[in-house]
């Protein structure tokens, strides 16, 4: 029975020396109870924190929290718990998981490592579930043993251990744990697989779970290759914060799909086959059409031969907001800085509003008035961005258009004085990736 402790200790040795605190996710079930006892025997108490999340989905949930608290106290370990409200929806399991992970992410610090008790059978169950849902390589990579998690890291040291081995160890150590009756509810897809499908597979192929774990490792390697290829392709296809449609069209269909999935996943958007097809049609669309593909809270547009992934173009209402300093908003960033040229002479009394029909101003050096529409066109500002572009006014007079012009009589008296204003609409870069498995 010491083999399990040795396995756990060996797994910890593979972790970076920079980890200062280990956070144990404890539900009170068999798996997490075993994990906690293994950790308590291998890690000094001052480096441990036990965290329990009460989803309030069962009448006994508060009793389970009390059980977890008493267990932590008996091991002389600090304990934190939090109740969450799981929203109603199609998947209670997914909603509960998301709520739980939000709690974990909130309390984790940069040098923390979150330990979770997923095991070999969980891996096989996850892969089978995703296979039935039509997952690709990324989905069939299964549960990753470790990954970045918010500011910290996440590690699953028991992922190579079968559940029966955990139960044998717990019984030999005379450990107690709680049983969640919802785990027997066959209306949940995962429970149906666990109790009705997987036992049949294991009876016919006893090493089913371990073989699937090997397949998951192969799939993770393949997924890494896909990511590496997407990064290589993005170097030749990226244009600013978007993708050059002409360069993208030169890639094979498979590489196009791979790069598009990579790019959108960096913005936490998982493309469906229908969305991917719509994007492929967008690539070949005429420039004057300015078509849009809606991707949840984001929009993908083609503009001047470039694919741009941006936040929804719901108009930002400025509402005569006072201009005091730089602003960070979902739709963009307004930067206020010292000007290297003749900037806006003062922020006193300046407010921000939206563009109005017929708006005109007198840009510095222009020698007369000009419509805002013409200024936007000359600056190459896409039509959909103009609706939320801030207009700086004092009273009824336009004094500046951030990033475009300062108006006559509102400039500073000499160069290197006054304020430079710049509006940066939110655009999602091609660079980077988001590993959310």
From TrEMBL:
GO terms for molecular function: ATP binding; tRNA(Ile)-lysidine synthase activity. It comes from the Bacteria. It catalyses: cytidine(34) in tRNA(Ile2) + L-lysine + ATP = lysidine(34) in tRNA(Ile2) + AMP + diphosphate + H(+). Residues 350-423 form the Lysidine-tRNA(Ile) synthetase C-terminal domain. GO terms for biological process: tRNA modification. Keywords: ATP-binding, Cytoplasm, Ligase, Nucleotide-binding, tRNA processing. The keyword tRNA processing applies. SMART domains: TilS_C. It holds the Pfam family TilS. The keyword tRNA processing applies. InterPro entries: Lysidine-tRNA-synth_C (IPR012796), Rossmann-like_a/b/a_fold (IPR014729), TilS/TtcA_N (IPR011063), tRNA_Ile_lys_synt (IPR012094), tRNA_Ile_lys_synt_N (IPR012795), tRNA_Ile_lys_synt_subst-bd (IPR015262). It is found in: Cytoplasm. ATP binds at residues 27-32. Its EC number is 6.3.4.19. Ligates lysine onto the cytidine present at position 34 of the AUA codon-specific tRNA(Ile) that contains the anticodon CAU, in an ATP-dependent manner. Cytidine is converted to lysidine, thus changing the amino acid specificity of the tRNA from methionine to isoleucine. This is tRNA(Ile)-lysidine synthase.
């Amino acid at each position: 029975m010491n083999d399990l402790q040795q396995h756990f200790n060996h797994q910890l040795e593979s972790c970076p020396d920079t980890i200062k605190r280990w956070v144990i996710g404890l539900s009170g079930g068999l798996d997490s109870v075993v994990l906690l006892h293994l950790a308590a025997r291998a890690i000094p108490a001052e480096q441990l924190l036990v965290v329990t999340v009460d989803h309030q989905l069962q009448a006994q949930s508060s009793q389970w929290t009390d059980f977890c608290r008493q267990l932590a106290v008996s091991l002389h370990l600090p304990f934190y718990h939090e109740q969450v409200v799981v929203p109603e929806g199609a998947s209670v399991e997914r909603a509960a998981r998301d709520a739980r992970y939000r709690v974990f992410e909130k309390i984790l610090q940069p040098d923390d490592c979150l330990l979770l008790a997923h095991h070999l059978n969980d891996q096989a169950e996850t892969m089978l579930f995703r296979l039935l849902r039509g997952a690709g390589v990324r989905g069939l990579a299964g549960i990753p043993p470790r990954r970045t998690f918010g500011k910290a890291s996440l590690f699953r040291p028991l992922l190579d251990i079968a559940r029966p081995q955990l139960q044998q160890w717990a019984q030999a150590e005379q450990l107690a744990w709680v049983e969640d009756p919802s785990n027997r509810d066959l209306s949940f897809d995962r429970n149906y697989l666990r109790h009705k499908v997987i036992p049949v597979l294991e009876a016919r192929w006893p090493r089913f779970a371990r073989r699937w774990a090997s397949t998951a490792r192969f799939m993770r390697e393949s997924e890494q290759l896909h990511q590496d290829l997407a990064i290589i392709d993005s170097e030749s296809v990226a244009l600013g914060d978007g993708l050059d449609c002409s360069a993208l069209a030169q890639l094979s269909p498979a590489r196009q799909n791979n790069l598009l999935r990579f790019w959108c996943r960096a913005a936490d958007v998982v493309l469906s086959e229908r969305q991917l097809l719509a994007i492929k049609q967008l690539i070949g669309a005429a420039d004057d059409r300015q078509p849009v593909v809606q991707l949840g809270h984001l929009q993908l547009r083609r503009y001047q031969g470039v694919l741009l992934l941006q936040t929804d173009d719901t108009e930002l209402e400025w509402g005569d907001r006072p201009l005091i300093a730089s602003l960070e908003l979902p739709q963009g960033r307004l930067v206020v800085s010292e000007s290297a040229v003749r900037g806006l002479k003062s922020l006193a009394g300046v407010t921000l509003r939206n563009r109005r029909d017929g708006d005109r101003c007198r840009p510095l050096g222009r020698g007369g008035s000009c419509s805002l529409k013409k200024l936007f066109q000359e600056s190459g500002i896409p039509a959909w961005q103009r609706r939320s572009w801030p207009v700086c006014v004092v009273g009824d007079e336009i004094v500046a258009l951030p990033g475009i012009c300062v108006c006559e009589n509102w400039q500073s008296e000499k160069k290197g004085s006054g304020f430079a204003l710049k509006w940066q609409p939110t655009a999602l870069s091609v660079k980077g990736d988001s590993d959310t498995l």
